[in-house]
Amino acid sequence: MTALLDVVNLQKIYPVGGLGKARGQLHAVDDVSFSIAPGETVGLVGESGCGKSTLVRLLARLHDPTAGSIRFGDTDLADMKARGFARRPERAAIQMVFQDAGESINPRYTAFEAIAAPLRRLRGLRGADLQRRVESLADATGIPRALLGRFPHQLSGGQKARVGIARAIAVEPRLLILDEPTAALDVSVQVVILKLLMELRERLGLSYLFVSHDINVVRLICDRVLVMYLGKIVEQGPTAEVLGRPAHPYTRALLSAVPELTLEPPPPRPRLGGEPRSPINPDPRICRFFGRCPDGRPACADSMPRLAPVGPAHAAACHFA
Ligand code: ADP
Ligand code: MG
């Protein structure tokens, strides 16, 4: 099957601090490659600051990449400037749902206007056609029509999340990028919104790239998982494989931090010591996890491990995986 999205050697470097030679280079996304098949849900996990949001914002072309390619269908989106992208048909095909729907929706827009905006801009809908389409999107996402006239501050967290989703699916995307879409919600509301997302995925045949630091959510809804650490993908594979038989020490540490519902005494857990390495001017020879890795050996400071197969469709970037 040909990929819907094919990302190759993608990189984003932010210049930080100082002047001239003192200026540092922050490697937010470093040499990242992966693909997403039509209809597939791929999870992206990793601790705060590892580059998840930067990566997905590159894919949605809200930022310009430093290097690499983002193939979507027949086009390389990386070649386009973020500004030019806004007018391309691919703009409709890739849509984003943000963590805080309240902040990503213009406070001066009613729910109706928030959902209508992309339909006006990308589909040219007006008048009765626009009204009908917005109402059918409200129905599909469980927003009572009576709420369409309300402003964001008059809506609950769950209702705002629904508006964010309705707006994202309005222009019939093929890929929905969700950056921690339920992180700001109460647990009971999270469950309802996740169910809605799973239902829409089936009904509309969407692919999802789902960013989350909640491993249990990823376990529930993702076909495959990418594990990110300091700008790099350190492990990837089918969800059951990666979460069931993690090959990278970082993935194991991430999983051991997940609370389990059990009455058994917990097994001994690998603890992460040390400080994370800096993402600024990282030494390309040293494994990014070295210093914090419970299994670190001298070889890890001599050569950066690359992603290598550890099973069918399962890969890890560790010399000792
Ligand atoms: P995550 O979403 O996984 O928490 P981010 O993508 O937000 O991570 O951040 C990745 C790294 O890039 C962090 O070290 C962050 O401080 C840095 N970063 C993000 N945006 C910028 C920016 N505009 N300028 C400089 N550094 C940035
Ligand atoms: Mg983020």
Rg (CA only): 21 Å
Mean pLDDT reading: 92
Low-confidence stretches: none
Helix content: 25-40%
Number of helices: 11
Task: Please summarize the sheet with the most strands.
Answer: 8 strands, mixed
What is the SS-derived class? alpha/beta
Count the strands?
A: 12
Percent of residues in beta strands: 15-25%
The unique ligands bound to this protein are: adenosine-5'-diphosphate, magnesium ion
Q: What is the 3D form?
A: globular
Give the topology string: H per helix, E per strand.
Answer: EEEHEEHHEHHHHEHEHEEHHEE
Distance between termini? 29 Å
Main sheet: strand order:
6-7-8-3-9-10-12-11
Task: Walk me through this protein's architecture.
The protein has 321 residues and is α/β, with parallel strands linked by helices. The protein contains 11 helices and 12 strands. The chain has helices spanning 52-59, 82-85, 89-93, 101-104, 111-123, 127-140, 157-169, 187-204, 215-221, 239-244, 249-256, and strands at 5-16, 24-36, 41-45, 67-72, 75-76, 94-97, 175-179, 207-211, 224-229, 232-238, 308-311, 314-316. The chain has an 8-stranded mixed beta sheet, with helices on both faces. The protein has a 4-stranded antiparallel beta sheet with strand order 2-1-4-5. α5 packs across α6, α5 packs parallel to α7 and α7 (157-169) packs parallel to α8. The protein starts with a strand and ends in a 5-residue tail after the last strand. 41% of the residues are buried. The model has no long low-confidence stretch (mean pLDDT 92). Magnesium ion (MG) is lined by residues 52-53. Magnesium ion binds at residues 52-53.
